[in-house]
Amino acid sequence: xxxxxxxxxxxxxxxxxxxxxxxxxxxxxxxxxxxxxxxxxxxxxxxxxxxxxxxxxxxxxxxxxxxxxxxxxxxxxxxxxxxxxxxxxxxxxxxxxxxxxxxxxxxxxxxxxxxxxxxxxxxxxxxxxxxxxxxxxxxxxxxxxxxxxxxxxxxxxxxxxxxxxxxxxxxxxxxxxxxxxxxxxxxxxxxxxxxxxxxxxxxxxxxxxxxxxxxxxxxxxxxxxxxxxxxxxxxxxxxxxxxxxxxxxxxxxxxxxxxxxxxxxxxxxxxxxxxxxxxxxxxxxxxxxxxxxxxxxxxxxxxxxxxxxxxxxxxxxxxxxxxxxxxxxxxxxxxxxxx
Length: 339
Ligand SMILES: *[C@@H]1O[C@H](CO)[C@@H](O)[C@H](O)[C@H]1NC(C)=O
Ligand SMILES: *[C@@H]1O[C@H](CO)[C@@H](O)[C@H](O)[C@H]1NC(C)=O
Ligand SMILES: *[C@@H]1O[C@H](CO)[C@@H](O)[C@H](O)[C@H]1NC(C)=O
Ligand SMILES: *[C@@H]1O[C@H](CO)[C@@H](O)[C@H](O)[C@H]1NC(C)=O
Ligand SMILES: *[C@@H]1O[C@H](CO)[C@@H](O)[C@H](O)[C@H]1NC(C)=O
Ligand SMILES: *[C@@H]1O[C@H](CO)[C@@H](O)[C@H](O)[C@H]1NC(C)=O
Ligand SMILES: *[C@@H]1O[C@H](CO)[C@@H](O)[C@H](O)[C@H]1NC(C)=O
Ligand SMILES: *[C@@H]1O[C@H](CO)[C@@H](O)[C@H](O)[C@H]1NC(C)=O
Prior knowledge:
Layout: H1 2-11, H2 21-34, H3 40-46, H4 62-65, H5 99-102, H6 109-121, H7 126-143, E1 161-164, E2 171-172, H8 173-189, H9 194-207, H10 217-232, E3 247-249, H11 251-279, H12 309-338
Parallel strand pairs: 1-3
Antiparallel strand pairs: 1-2
The protein binds 2-acetamido-2-deoxy-beta-D-glucopyranose (NAG) (8 copies).
Protein name: Aspergillus nuclease S(1)
GO molecular function, one term: hydrolase activity, acting on ester bonds
Organism: Adineta steineri
C-alpha cells in the first residue's frame, strides 16, 4: 500500500490521465492554491510530494490516475473501491439530492468530501493526511462538474452519445463536460494557451458573486443539479437528451453552456481554497491540525498502524529512491519496447 502510493505519485510525473479532465482539475486546484493564506501554503507544501516543489495542482488528478491500468499498471485493482466517491447519481429528472436515497452509507462524493475533510482534521499519520488531501482536492473539483451529480439511468451522462461540432468521432455527454468543451474553448478562444485560460478563469473567480452558505456542500450539489435539470440535458434544438439515440451538439449548445462550466471551475477553486484555509493548522504548528478527536482508520480499511513521524520520513525517503529507480526502469522498458 505504502509502496504503491509512492510509486503512483512518482510515475504520475510521466503518465497522464484526464478527469473534470486533467486541465479542469488542475485549474481548480491552482485557483485554490492562489487563495491560500496564513499557515495554509506551508501546510500544503508539507503534504505535497517534494519533487513537485509545492505545486499541489500536479496532484489534482491523482484520484483518477490510481483507477486505471494505463496510469497505475501495478495497483489499479487496489483502488476500485474509491470509484463511487467521484459522483452522486439521482433518479432521472428528480432535481434534488436526498442523502438517504442517493448516498447510502456515505458512499458518494458528498460522503467522501466529509470523510476526507474529517480525516485531515484528525491526528492520523502523514501519509494518510497526504492521501486525504489528494482525494479532497479532486472531489471538490468533481462535485462542481454538473455531470458528477447526474442521472442514474445514464450514469451521469456517460451513456448519452453525442456528436460534438460535427466531428466524426462520437463522445458522450459526461466526457464532453469533463474535458471536451474545455479543450475546445482553449483551442478556439485562447489560442491553445492554457495559462491564458487559467488567468481568465481566475478573473472570473475574483469577480464572482459569493452566495451565503458558500461552504455548504449541500449548496454545491443543488447548484450542480440545477444546471443538470435546466441546461445540460437540452441539445442544440432544445430537445431532451437521453441514451436512446445520438445527439448533435454544436456552437449553439457550446455558446450556451460554456459560461456555466467556467462559473463552476471558478466556484470550485474558490471553495476549495477556502476549505483548505479552514483546515490548515494554526500557524506555528507544523504537525497535524489541532481540532478533532484521534480517529483511527475506518473499519474495513486494511491500513496498518504506522511508525512515528521521523521514522516514516526516513522510510519514505528510502522508498522514494527505490521507486524512482523502479519507475525509471519501468518507463525505460516501455520506451525500449516501443522503439
Ligand atoms: C503546476 O502543475 C501544473 C500541472 O502539472 C502545471 O500546469 C503548472 O504549470 C504548474 N505550476 C507551476 C507554478 O509550476
Ligand atoms: C424527488 O424525489 C423526492 C423524494 O425522494 C420527492 O419528494 C420529490 O417530489 C421528487 N422531485 C421531483 C422533481 O420529481
Ligand atoms: C473514508 O476514508 C477511509 C480511508 O481512505 C476509507 O477507508 C473509507 O471507505 C472512507 N469512507 C467514505 C464514506 O468515504
Ligand atoms: C456543422 O454542420 C452544420 C450543417 O452542415 C454547419 O452549419 C455548421 O457550420 C457545422 N459546424 C461546425 C463547427 O463545423
Ligand atoms: C500563454 O499565455 C501566457 C499568459 O498570458 C503568456 O505569458 C505566454 O507567453 C503565452 N504562451 C504562448 C506560447 O503564447
Ligand atoms: C427548452 O425546453 C425547456 C423544457 O423542455 C423549457 O423550459 C425552455 O424554456 C426551453 N428553452 C428554449 C430556449 O426554448
Ligand atoms: C429520448 O429523447 C428523444 C428526443 O428528445 C425523445 O423523442 C424520446 O422520447 C426520448 N426517449 C426516452 C425513453 O425518454
Ligand atoms: C446529427 O447530424 C447528422 C449529420 O451530421 C445527421 O445525419 C443526424 O440525423 C443528426 N442527428 C440528429 C438527432 O439530429
